[in-house]
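Table S7 (text form). Paired inputs.
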Amino acid sequence: MAKAAASAKAGKSAASADDNGKPRKGVEWLEGQMSTHFANVVNVQGTREQVDLFFGTNRTWNVEEGSSVSVELSNRIILTPLAAKRLWTVLGGVLREHESRYGPLNVD
């Protein structure tokens, strides 16, 4: 997967021809319309038909006890339950590898 992402960044298609000139099956990652956003807050809600992911930025730095937190929402991603399950599987693997390299992430 990292190889496919690297070749996509280099402007090559992951679905290019193999050594014999036959088309190779794969995913072509098109980055032309992609935008990048930072998020340090995420929330999730779901129904039978979809799973909604909300991303935002916490802009409240000095929170006093009892005061509210201000989160500026920037993106909402709507997934089918099957796509959400695939994301959960892949994200779990990425986080397991991260924790094996850098130590556990404690979530309060």
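Next pair, protein 2 of 2.
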Amino acid sequence: MTPAETDTLIRQLISGDPAAAAAILARATSSTEPLVLTAAALLAPTTPQLLDRAVAAATDRQDRQLTALAAAHLAGNVDRVSALAREHLLEHPDSVLAAWIAAGAILPADNAHPIRKPLVAGTVPADSPKES
């Protein structure tokens, strides 16, 4: 995959496209791209080998930061996610995967769909306070 194709696939994933999630998981079986492997690790948190492979493939600072951010997210370390996301996004403000991770990325395990569903314009999340 070219970097542009990978970027498009990640953006489709973040927008809630289930086909993108399936494509990332399928590509992760043979990919050596840290971005693909990191996204797949987020989609399949019970497969730690994906994150291990992403860490091993991460050769530059940007990729190493992103894999550390994903690891903190998967470990449930909210404070570390916040700190790592701030640092990463200062250096790489176009990193949509890092922003997605910082925003929560994955719904709780009891939800049948593995990726966050986007809000519809004009709606508010169910757990948001209502204006009086």
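The CA atoms of residues 43 and 114 lie 6 Å apart.
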